[in-house]
Specification:
Blueprint: E1 2-5, E2 10-13, E3 19-23, H1 27-33, H2 38-59, E4 63-70, H3 78-94, H4 96-101, E5 105-109, H5 117-129, E6 137-144, H6 146-162, H7 173-179, E7 194-197, E8 216-219, H8 229-240
Helix pairs in contact: 1-2, 2-3, 3-5
Bound molecules: farnesyl diphosphate.
Length: about 250
């Protein structure tokens, strides 16, 4: 049982979600409130990501899948896209060493095509450096779109049927899950138990639509750069009060 002292009461965490998905939203508004350019918010968002990753790892969370860039985000101003694409490079230099020390393993899902070479290189270096770490998996969803992920899986499955690897009748939920990008994660924990979205937006925005079928959803008005260890504990405390029935009674 983990407790975090608050002024009036302790936050008690008895059930720790194994896999948490986070939609890190609100960086732009956070910067705007400080009369700074939006990219300033993305920089602060990286600090928050490091702190939350370490806090989650201390709690025993096994996987954090974080939505860093969606396939729809290309519609942003070119300068901002360029800046966001450079974040993994900066993340590798400034943050990965500390995460590596904390036994964090870095993985990536999303469409690699279209990502700049330097971005891919930084992600690959982070993956390679941390591949033997046995602690929390920090799974970046970068250039990720949930419907596109399902379309790609369907194409691969159709091809395997054409190649007579199996029949349409053999297709099960488990088989489909094996063709999704989250098949990069340990089998038991591919689906998030809890999805957190910051900044007051109440939707999933194409984030893990298949995997989120039974996830508990937690929305907070806190902007992502302000999301910290205490905010994470509050989200998990709320998760502790949910009764997950998975369709049963
Ligand atoms: C959403 O806020 C945030 C993003 C699109 C980028 C998220 C990136 C990070 C938190 C940094 C870590 C990422 C990597 C790859 C190391 P927004 O810009 O939509 O904010 P707004 O809704 O207030 O405009």
């Amino acid at each position: 049982m983990f407790t975090l002292r608050r002024k009036k009461q302790d936050i008690k965490l008895s059930k720790i979600p194994a896999h948490i998905g986070i939609i890190m939203d609100g960086n732009g508004r956070w910067a705007k409130k400080r009369m700074k350019p939006r990219v300033f918010g993305h920089k602060a968002g990286m600090d928050a990501l490091q702190d939350v990753t370490i806090a989650a790892s201390e709690l025993g969370v096994k996987i954090l899948t974080v939505y860093a860039f969606s396939t729809e985000n290309w519609a942003r101003p070119q300068e901002e896209v360029k800046f966001i694409m450079n974040l993994p490079v900066e993340f590798f230099d400034k943050y990965v060493p500390k995460l590596h020390k904390n036994n964090v393993r870095i993985l990536v899902i999303g469409d690699k095509e279209g990502l700049p070479a330097a971005t891919l290189d930084a992600l690959e270096r982070a993956r390679e450096l941390t591949k033997h770490n046995s602690g929390l998996i920090l799974n970046f969803a970068l250039n990720y779109g949930g419907r596109a992920e399902i379309v790609d899986a369907v194409k691969l499955i159709a091809q395997d049927v054409l190649d007579a690897r199996f029949n349409p009748g053999d297709i099960t939920e488990g088989l489909i899950a094996d063709y999704l990008m989250t098949s990069n994660l340990p089998y038991l924990y591919r689906d998030p138990d809890l999805i957190i979205r910051t900044s007051g937006e109440l939707r999933l925005s194409n984030f893990l639509p298949w995997q989120a079928a039974y996830s508990e959803l937690y929305f907070t008005d806190t902007l992502w750069p302000d999301f910290d260890k205490k905010a994470l504990y509050l989200a998990i405390e709320e998760f502790n009060h949910r009764h997950r029935r998975f369709g049963g009674v």
